[in-house]
């Protein structure tokens, strides 16, 4: 087999596998034509090398999946685009690693969501902690929309965990196995108990077989028990929060070498893509002006 023929064959095989993934990811759900929708991802890629690594990987992965699965993916680190005129051109908004900070941006995002817009957030987009650069100064977002409140700790360095699907009714997780092993991640815990919030549906949590979970060196960073939500949605909004989004980095040798990826995991890929399609299908039709919201 010649080198050119072999490379062409590998390229064709890769495309075929991606097409098969798109088919399998959504087979068994309601029979829709392939959705044609537009996604915009906001990011900063400024805080922690593990988050920066995830942002760059996510932008590559979503762009590839958009070509194969027939949707449009754009990304921007210009948060001044968080305005109603700009958002009206997209069916789904993604926060890869941050939240809007200006009051005008926050108000635009709130109006977008209250009008039926769709949102997917990863990992650090939910982070808030007083006495840090990301204080809890947006009550609607952290307590009403996400429901989680302030960040209250993590499990130390990124590590894989066995995850448990708690609620299989949601299309984002309906075709996942009851338990699966995640990509390495830094897992968060929160001040608010999401189980007590009637608006929140927890879809995925850390399975008890993961314990002890954590790398230390602090003892409180090694979890031996407890309930830790990982994926949830809010019944009052079209949203999906996924706590995954922190790649493993060689911090110890100050090399910032990437030791893991997030989207090399079949079940994580399926979760994200099924969630994205679910959000896009349920979104209302918007007009291209503030009045349309």
The gist of it:
The protein is α/β, with parallel strands linked by helices. The chain has helices at residues 3-26, 49-69, 84-87, 103-114, 139-145, 266-282, and strands at 38-42, 72-76, 92-95, 118-122, 151-154, 162-165, 179-181, 188-190, 200-206, 229-234, 238-242. It is globular.
User: CATH superfamily assignment?
Assistant: Class I glutamine amidotransferase (GATase) domain
Helical coverage, percent range = 25-40%
CATH fold category name? Rossmann fold
- From the N-terminal CA to the C-terminal CA, the straight-line distance is 58 Å
Strand content: 15-25%
Q: Structural class, judged by helices and strands?
A: alpha/beta
Reported CATH architecture = 3-Layer(aba) Sandwich
- Overall geometry comes to globular
Count of separate structural domains? 1
Largest β-sheet summary: 9 strands, mixed
Low-confidence stretches: 2-16, 26-33, 282-293
CATH class: Alpha Beta
Q: Rg, please?
A: 19 Å
Index terms:
17% strand; 11 strands; 293 residues; disordered N terminus; globular; alpha/beta; single chain; nine-stranded mixed sheet
Write structural notes for this entry.
The protein is of the alpha/beta class and 293 residues long. The chain has a single domain, classed as Rossmann fold, CATH 3.40.50. Helices cover 29% and strands 17% of the residues. A nine-stranded mixed beta sheet has the order 2-1-3-4-11-10-9-6-7. The protein has a two-stranded antiparallel sheet with strand order 5-8. Strand 10 and strand 11 (238-242) form a beta hairpin. The longest helix is centred in the first third of the chain and has 24 residues, at 3-26. The termini are far apart.
